[in-house]
Amino acid sequence: MTANLYERARFRISGDRSILAVYGTGVDQAVNDKVRRIATLIVNQKPAGIDAAVPSYCTLSIHYNPMKTDFSELRDILWSLENDLNKADIPEPLTIDIPVCYGEEFGPDIDFVAQHNGISVDDVIQIHTCSAYHIFAIGFAPGFCYLGGLDPRLHAPRLETPRVRVAAGSVGIAGAQTGVYPLASPGGWRLIGRTPLRLFAPERPHPILYQAGDKIRFRSVSSDEFHHISRIENP
Amino acid sequence: MTDALHILSPGSYTTVQDMGRFHAYHMGVPVSGSLDDFAHRIANWLVGNSQDSAVLEMSMIGAKFDVICETDMAVTGARMNLRVNGSPCPGWTSIRVQSGDLVELSTVENGCRAYLAVTGGIDVPLVMGSRSTYVGGQLGGLKGRILLSEDILRRGEGRLLSKPRSLPWFPIYPENIFVRAIPGPHDDFFRNHLDRFFASNFTVTAQSNRMGCRLAGPEILRDTDAPQSIISEPIVPGNVQVPADGQPIVLLKEQTIGGYTNIATVISPDIFRMAQAGPGDTIQFIHVTLDEAHKIYRDWMRFLHEIEELLTL
């Protein structure tokens, strides 16, 4: 058990229809894994009165129906779920493979990231693809992952002037963070590549490929492979 | 399903909305839906729809359109002058319109957002369980965007009313708005300024939108010993976020996660009052406890049920 984990959940009132259950502090995989496990138990057990459970770094937001339950009942339910954490029906986190074409027109800032850190472009690709990144939370934009664990040799400042439009699938670095833009949007991250996968596809039964608590790993692909996958993704 | 409306002029910010997209927060997709869920429900009940049918939400400036096929129609929420073929018609009441009729809504005269329902509901594809438009995510509604001139909107199946319906009264939206709020989730970061927050008047600024209602007023500052920032947490509609500049933002329906502290949360039965707050209106927050809020919620649900029964007799 890490020092960041609370002994049991602490609660914050967030309006008349939701509470925040807080399981610890910091950017900590053990805390985040507990959030993921409790969220999974809620999805599986569907306790009466709970409409949704939204995970983040240390916190689970519980949306509830005040006609069916109340704060003290929810608190007891959530505390008792902590006793069920070792149940076999909680799957281990998935690791999702994300193909990325690095550099070229897809990653216009990869040279900057390399020079900023005194390494080669090949080093940037090798370092970026060698670890699995923990998804601490999903939000800000549909399908956008808050990822942890970027190697310090790849840290790079944001652009001074954000781009007006960043293409969907762009992979970037901002400070100590790396991430993927699921949708085209304005953005200030240093772009090092692009994935041909549609990371947010609202018309599909599963609009995103992962959930908070899973891991993603980037894999370097050629531009030929990029275009091949892109054609499958966008028929 | 049949073509129903031909948009001649969309107004300033008109979108298709239903009650919202409730099961996608964990994918980073916010609830969306009509900001004024009270006016939304009444518009639907007035034309014989279920409350969750999709309607048009029009902000500040109303739309102008041709009717393509006969329908009942009702406009609720903010007061915009409504004309059918040039003749004034009342809001909060059902109106039968025919193919070829010209419907015009003016700039808003009271409130901020008006709602227009038609028989069978506005028919756009269900996306992740809802017809609501989320412009930021380019999804839902009509092609994930605000309406444009020359758009054609379809409507669902539905029976025309056997007799007109109207609400015997209708709300007037005051310029000085009181909304009830529960302290938290981060009230313990604001021990010194919590009283000031509940005692002050704030003015709605023009930067407000469906994501949040931005306020200007006395600075609300975190305690000097409180942490400077929090790790991003899920947020809900009604959270009153206070960034470092001390100017609160009441979060509405287009955000799922935030990294700022929330001093208090507007209770869900009062969110519609925020939806009708326009630039220059003032907001005062009234402190309620969670128990008081739950009693208000139950009374509000009962009240809505009574209105539904009254209108659908």
Can you give keywords for this protein?
heterodimer, A: 235 residues, alpha+beta, Gyrase A, domain 2, Cyclophilin, 2 domains, seven-stranded mixed beta sheet, four-stranded antiparallel beta sheet, 24% helix, 31% strand, elongated, B: 313 residues, ten-stranded antiparallel beta sheet, seven-stranded mixed β-barrel, 4 helices, 19 strands
Order of helices and strands of chain A: EEHEEHEHHEEEEEEEEH
Briefly note the structural class of the backbone of chain B: alpha+beta
> Structural class of the secondary structure composition of chain A?
alpha+beta
The average pLDDT value of chain B, as a whole number, equals 96
Poorly predicted segments of chain B: none
Number of E-state strands of chain A: 13
Return Rg of chain B in Å: 20 Å
Biggest β-sheet: strands ordered side by side in the sheet of chain A: 7-6-13-5-12-9-10
One letter per element, helices H and strands E, the order of chain B comes to EEHEEEEEEEEEHEEEEEEEHEH
Q: Please summarize the sheet with the most strands of chain B.
A: 10 strands, antiparallel
Number of domains of chain A: 2
Please tell me the total number of domains of chain B.
2
Write up what this structure looks like:
Chain A has 235 residues and is α+β, with helices and mostly antiparallel strands. Chain A has 2 domains: 5-84, Gyrase A, domain 2, CATH 3.30.1360.40; 95-233, Cyclophilin, CATH 2.40.100.10. Chain A has helices spanning 29-45, 71-81, 110-117, 121-130, 223-233, and strands spanning 5-13, 18-24, 50-55, 59-64, 95-102, 132-138, 145-147, 163-166, 170-174, 177-180, 185-187, 190-194, 215-220. Chain A has a 7-stranded mixed β-sheet. In chain A, strands 1-2-4-3 form a 4-stranded antiparallel β-sheet, covered by helices on one side. The longest helix of chain A is centred in the N-terminal third of the chain and has 17 residues, at 29-45. The radius of gyration of chain A is 20 Å and the shape is elongated. Chain A starts with a strand and ends with a helix. In chain B, helix 1 packs parallel to helix 4 (290-311). Chain B has 2 domains: 2-155, no CATH class; 176-304, Cyclophilin, CATH 2.40.100.10. Chain B contains 4 helices and 19 strands. With 313 residues, chain B is α+β, with helices and mostly antiparallel strands. Chain B has helices at 37-46, 194-199, 271-275, 290-311; strands at residues 2-9, 13-17, 55-59, 64-67, 71-84, 87-89, 95-97, 102-118, 122-123, 152-155, 176-183, 202-204, 212-216, 233-234, 239-241, 249-251, 257-258, 262-266, 282-287. Classes of the chains: A alpha+beta (235), B alpha+beta (313). Chains A and B meet through strand 3 and strand 4 of A and strand 14, strand 18 and helix 4 of B.
